[in-house]
Amino acid sequence: MTVGSAGERPSMLLVCAGDPSGDALAARAVEAWLRLRPGGRVEGLGGP
User: Fold this and answer.
1) Going along the chain, which residue ranges are E strands?
2) Which residue ranges make up each domain of the chain?
3) What's the pLDDT tens digit per position in 17-39?
């Protein structure tokens, strides 16, 4: 990730969920985050 000016927010989000309900909650959070940060990058991991 490139470091920008102090006023900039990161444009990458890492999401970790361990069960289907966590996946559903994370999906809503990611959608909201992407509305605030169009073009943001999202990475995810989870599950057994």
Assistant:
1) 12-17, 41-46
2) 12-46
3) 989 999 999 999 999 999 999 98
